[in-house]
Amino acid sequence: MKAIITTKYGSPDVLQLQDIEKPTPKDNEVLIKIYAASVTAADTMMRKGTPLFGRLFIGLTKPKHPIAGTGFSGTIEAIGNYVKLFQVGDEVFGESLFGAGTNAEYTCVPENGVLTLKPSNLTHEELASICDGPLTSWNFLKVIAEVQRGQSVLVNGASGSLGTAAVQLAKHLGAKVTGVCSTSNVDMVKSLGADHIINYTQTDFAKTGRTYDIIFDTVGKSSFAKCKKVLELNGIYLSPVLSLPLLFQMLWTSMFGSKKAKFSATGLKPVPELRLLLNELKTLLESGQLKSVIDRCYPLEEVAEAHQYVDTGHKKGNLIVEML
């Protein structure tokens, strides 16, 4: 089969299309023929091997698991001897964690992994990236911040993968949502349900005089120190991007003060919890209460170009790899 292999850490040039052996499912696994996969900011960090301390876990000189990508949607082609939850021919979507990548024609996933049946009214392209932006944003807003109806939520980076999902999900939870984005993305973010838009090229959201119950910094480009003054009493600053200052602020605010800084590595949550969150998102997707925003689609052989585009910092929503 064809797959994108990360030959070493570095620029998108380290990604190579290679012919490798098609995987065989273990007793508890399903073999999935992939129709669509995702390319995410997290994938580019894995390619670069950043932050550097992460290499202690993913490989010192190159990734232990060289096939790029984690999100996918496809059809089960074969099942292991002990599989009972799925059968051959089932259309499924989900995420491959800490193992075989998904920028490939096939992958194997445990039947009790982050995997669920595909809704018939949605395409493989719409579902391939759900375990990146939407799943992460759902975890932050519903589980960590426990967003309540009537609260005010600011989403910094509202046009990205996490941001486009966060705007919709915060609205679903009943919040008043302010989206921060650039000029070219104002109309899109507004169409997702944002009550207010702040164009960061013209206005600093920390200087508008407005305050918020929750600030979700989806791109990690602000800081708790900056946001603290525009958080309400008992307000929460959320970031999926861990840094040493944020780590210190999390520890400090866990013990002192009413305003909190919080981080979560969503992909490290127990798989049963991730699967529960995924199935909740599936219900929202199926009913049209959540929509996947797709910027561009690439064929498998152009994954390096997709990584280059992510590196520009200007993608809108999600990038999809199509197995043509």
Care to describe what's here?
Helix content is 27%, strand content 27%. The chain is α/β, with parallel strands linked by helices and 324 residues long. It has 2 domains: 2-130 and 292-322, Medium-chain alcohol dehydrogenases, catalytic domain (Quinone Oxidoreductase, Chain A, domain 1); 133-266, Rossmann fold. The mean pLDDT is 96. This is NAD(P)-dependent alcohol dehydrogenase. One of its GO terms (molecular function) is oxidoreductase activity.
How are the elements arranged and paired?
Blueprint: E1 2-6, E2 15-19, E3 29-39, H1 41-48, H2 55-58, E4 71-79, E5 91-95, E6 106-110, E7 114-117, H3 124-127, H4 133-144, E8 152-156, H5 161-172, E9 176-181, H6 186-191, E10 196-199, E11 212-217, H7 224-227, E12 231-239, H8 244-255, E13 260-263, H9 271-286, E14 294-299, H10 303-311, E15 318-322
Parallel strand pairs: 8-9, 8-11, 9-10, 11-12, 12-13, 14-15
Antiparallel strand pairs: 1-2, 3-4, 3-6, 3-15, 4-5, 5-7
